[in-house]
Amino acid sequence: MKKATVLSLVLLVLSAFRLMEFSSSAIPAYFPRPVQEEVWQLDSNKVELGRVLFYDPQFSADEMISCASCHSPYNAFAHTDHAISHGVFDSIGFRNAPALFNLAWQSLFMHDGAAHDLAAQALAPLNSELEMASSVELLLKRMNLSPLYRYLFQKAYRDSTPSVARALESLSAFQLSLISTKSKYDKMRSGLLIFEDQEERGLALFEENCAACHPAPLFSDYAFRSNGIALNEELRDSGRYFVTAESEDLYAFKAPSLRNLKYSFPYMHDGRFTKLRAVLNHYSPKNGDLSKSPLKRVLSEKEKTDIIAFLATLNDPTFVFNPRHAYPKWILSFNTKSYE
Which of 277, 253, 275, 254 is nearest to 264 (CA)? Predict the structure, then answer.
């Protein structure tokens, strides 16, 4: 089929499809002010362009790895199939991909905080030999070969010429639109329901023992700490020390949000724990040694169960199964490369 004919079909489909509008009204009043204030003014066309880029594997060296390969929407934009993330040509990285939601309240990104700009952060996996093994030159070339991308850039920027800077901006816009605020906990905070007795007990235990590092409503302060887990001898990951070379940052990693834990296992930067009880057992071991734990006291097995019941109220299936975040099959069903 000739390029012009396919392009006409693409534009016909897109003109008939009403782009989903982004609304920041999903942010509850009890949330703090976002660090990334552009979240209040996201353009739906830029968000949609970013979504297409996020799911498109053609920008990796083997044309099989996209951002979504390690950040699945059904896992709260983390992944569960491997403890350590995999990249092109079956390469294996050295960390578990972090979940991507509520990024507007963060100022540093990745487990070690190596990126302070969400748009620029995408360059790390793009160029990494263990992830996409690609380049900005390849990204730009393949976008320019695609009439579909030229159309989407025209919609988003009133300019049909793709650019790397605008692609990164749009990827950032899509990620900032990933807001999770509709869990059972949020409904409780909004006065729409009350917790069951076990959930209330778990909340009280959580506030006593866990909230110093994981304060509500984001359930993280996003600070960097060493949480006392043993060094993974195979990976030898030094954490934030890799970025700062400061001794106090040795083996320190960013505290993750505890929202959506049902979907984002395995846990820790190296995915060493598959169960929440294993995480709690680390912080409150049976031998009662709290020397490397932030907990104020040893927890009983019943108390651990109550905390797990509370943590379940932080799961947000509305976010995880939101079609606005999902694979845009209406676009990527087309071959987006050259149509030649």
Answer: 275
d(CA 33, CA 35): 7
Measured CA to CA in angstroms, residue 89 lies from 16, 57, 141, 182, 318 at distances of 38, 13, 21, 38, 34
d(CA 54, CA 48): 10
3-180+320-332 folds as Cytochrome Bc1 Complex; Chain D, domain 2 (1.10.760)
pLDDT in tens, 16-48: 444 445 555 579 999 999 999 999 999 999 999
| pLDDT one-digit tens code per residue, 238-258 | 999 999 999 999 999 999 999
What is the C-alpha separation between 194 and 313, in angstroms, rounded? 11
3-state secondary structure 261-295: HHHHCCECCCCCECCHHHHHHHHCCCCCCCCCCCC
Write out residues in the chain with pLDDT < 70, as ranges: 1-25, 332-340
Q: Which residues pair with 115 in a beta bridge?
A: 109
CATH of domain 184-315: 1.10.760.10
Residue ranges of domains in the chain: 3-180+320-332, 184-315
- Phi/psi zone of residue 79: left (φ > 0), alpha (ψ -120 to 50 degrees), beta? beta
Tell if the pTM clears 0.85, that is, is over it. Answer: yes
Pairing label, strands 253-254, 224-225:
antiparallel
Q: Distances in Å between the alpha carbon of 183 and those of 124, 190, 304, 319?
A: 32, 11, 21, 9
Same fold, 3-180+320-332 and 184-315: yes
Burial of 197 (0-12, 13-18, 19+ CB in 10 A): exposed
Q: List all residues 6 or more positions away from 110 whose beta carbon is below 8 Å from its beta carbon.
A: 98, 121, 124, 254
Q: pLDDT for 280-292, tens place per residue?
A: 999 999 898 898 8
